Amino acid sequence: MLDVTAADLHPGSGTLSPLLAQPGVSLSIRNLMELMLRISDNSATDMLLARAGGSEAVTARMRALGIDGIRVDRPTALLIADRYGAALPAPETWTLDVFDEAFSARSEDERAASAIEFDLDPRDTATPNAFAELLARLHRGELVSEDSTALLLDIMERCLTGENRLKGLLPADTVVAHKTGSLAGTANDVGIMALPDSAGHVAIAVLMKSSDRSGTDRARAIAEIARAAYDYFVFQP
Q1: Model pTM greater than 0.85?
Q2: Which residue range(s) make up the domain with 13?
Q3: What is the CATH number of the domain that holds 23?
């Protein structure tokens, strides 16, 4: 069990920060995984990242697996702060009020300038090919134990975010184990689509950044790409 402290509550999506702001909460790694993968809870994500040894350890694990196109450099709290140009104090002093103060201290012009720098920053980036390779190897059971593989895929199949992205235009009964990501002009969804009649599975990764289109338009683009891939494998001769 991991104790959730005030310093563990980070801005962004999820339920830990808005609902569990008072001390006295402990959660298992399994529960944190559910929050991270099903509702993109940033606080749970950063707690698990720290438990895994931090950003460098995760990137090193990717390299050890032979996956070069994924790098993890910051917890989500620092990533979001950099996106909006907010200067944060030492992590042990973080609270939701500290985040609010840091974000509100930046003007709109300063935030806009930080957004441009953020989109050009190579840190915390990945390629679609690397994500697809990671997902395919996960599905084949090449990354973790059989039980852990089954657990991860089960949680990802119950993802509650991005219903209008990869799954948006697929047949309603299509099983998709997936994970979304969103921040300002970024909209991502990566996952594994099950083809009908036990015809196999498709690993797919759609990543979008610096978009000035609406959230609905971004989701539609991802959905159309997923449907095109699905139709190709279902209807090819």
Answers
A1: yes
A2: 2-120
A3: 3.40.710.10
Write out pLDDT tens, residues 111-170: 999 999 999 999 999 999 999 999 999 999 999 999 999 999 999 999 999 999 999 999
Query: Rounded to an integer, what distance in angstroms lies between the CA atom of residue 194 and that of residue 172?
Result: 12
Q: With H, G, I as helix, E, B as strand and everything else as coil, classify residue 186.
A: strand
Which tens digit of pLDDT belongs to each residue from 186-202?
999 999 999 999 999 99
Q: Mark whether 99 and 139 lie in a shared domain.
A: no
Tokens of 196: 């009908």
Cα dihedral 132, 144, 167, 30 sign: negative
Q: Minimal CA–CA distance to 76: which of 126, 117, 129, 123? A: 123
The token pair that represents 43 in the structure block: 């606080």
206 and 178 belong to one structural domain: yes
